[in-house]
Amino acid sequence: MSIRVKNLIIAVLTLTVLTACDDALTSGENNRTAVAVAVDMPQLPEGAEVVDRLLTFRNVSSGKSYEFTVNADIELLPGLYDVAFSARVFTPGAATTTLRADSRSVNVSGSTLSIRLTAYNSIETDDLIIAEVFFSGTLQPSGNQYYGDDYVKLYNNTDHTIYADGITLFETKFLTTRKYTYEPDIMSEAMTVQALYTIPGSGEDVPVAPGEYLLLVDTGIDHRVANPNSFDLSGADFEWYDVSSVPKDLDIDGPVPNLDKWYCYTRSFWVLHNRGFKAFGIARIPVDRDTYLKDYLYTYEYEEVTVAGTFPMSQTAYRLPNEWILDVVTCSIDSDYAWQLCTPALDCGWTGCGTIDKDKTRYFHSVRRKLLYVTEDGRAVLADTNNSSEDFNRMCVPSEIELQHTAMDINGTPATTVTYDGVVPMP
């Protein structure tokens, strides 16, 4: 979603909440911490009403989450917690928006603790969203990893036609599984990206009707020729193609139209991170390619800590202003998730395939946006709350495998059920 983050803070909302009725919280009566949370609010339109205020504490070690409402007391057992705040904003004559704030790896200890969060107002916009990311890939009958059949599906979740010309698909530079203190810290203003591929067109060349998908693929060919456990992507809408400068790693230019390549970090060809340790997103960039590459380079510094010592590091990538970003899907795994790669106004959760690093169960699976309901005319309306944890189903049979009834495991077992979202069957 696009956002308009206002720097002027005009109110402080102090929240205290009921103790969760969970065994993890009711044990250790004398060892709990009383927690008070203050939320600095952005400037809101006149007449705006803030409702459904919710605090969520996720224990980093156990993975358990505890939700609280307002006007009571918080008491938590000591530990590291990811803290998230959300609320809905209703404004007369305007679209409903969502307030979000978060703080990661908060050390809850001692008898009392005060936490201060800064909320951002996420504005609902009429544009495409990411419906599915298939990054894990398939396996050949030999058991070897197969590359090239990864894809991203965009979806028109509105009731009117949207033109996709100029939408840029991107992947983040940083990993969700490895946290550093990067300086300067630009997360409140922009995301740090390492791959950008743009849908070509002059403005109305790529219409997407309500309830329709746009399929962006790595390589637009029939992959069953090389791997009988894969599927056919020769009918995709667009592919990302790279002219490789590495002779042994040449890309394949399939028969489908190419995306316009703005930038990619690799000298060979780009594939989606196949363990899903990145955030993927789409944006509308209001400047031309040359201007962007000239004006939006980001040089950052951090410290690499190894057994041999601590070393200062400096690298470059590109920054993508938050207000240009339409949608973000953050991916990770349970065992190694470390942090979010964007402001909570863009995404305050994560999804993924598999639970541990190099999890072999991730193959033949994707993440798919959840179905909310189906309209009378048969159009699917999908969840979109800027929280990948809540909006996406994990470990789904990919939609292309369902639609083509191709292999959904290494044994070549064909898919027989077609679903809206990896869970709810279509009639």
Q: In short, what is this structure?
A:
The protein is mostly beta strands.
Strand pairing plus helix content: what structural class? Answer: mainly beta
Mean pLDDT over the residues: 90
> How much helix, percentage-wise, in residues?
under 10%
Q: Biggest sheet, open or closed, and with what strands and sense? A: 7 strands, antiparallel
Helix run count: 4
Silhouette: globular
Give a verbal description of the structure.
5% of the residues lie in helices and 39% in strands. The protein is mainly beta and 427 residues long. The strands form seven sheets. Strands 15, 16, 20, 21, 22, 23 and 24 form a seven-stranded antiparallel sheet that branches. It has a six-stranded mixed sheet with strand order 19-18-13-10-25-28. β3 and β4 form a beta hairpin. The longest helix is centred in the C-terminal third of the chain and has 7 residues. The N terminus is likely disordered.
Task: Break the fold down into its secondary structure elements and pairings.
Blueprint: E1 9-15, H1 23-26, E2 33-42, E3 49-59, E4 65-68, E5 74-76, E6 79-90, E7 97-108, E8 112-118, E9 120-123, E10 129-134, E11 138-139, E12 145-146, E13 151-155, E14 162-163, E15 167-172, E16 190-198, E17 207-208, E18 213-217, E19 238-239, E20 260-264, E21 279-284, H2 289-295, E22 297-306, E23 309-321, E24 325-330, E25 366-369, E26 371-374, E27 380-382, H3 388-391, E28 392-396, H4 399-404
Parallel strand pairs: 2-8, 18-19
Antiparallel strand pairs: 1-2, 2-5, 3-4, 3-6, 6-7, 7-9, 10-13, 10-25, 11-12, 13-18, 14-17, 15-16, 15-21, 16-20, 16-23, 21-24, 22-23, 25-28, 26-27
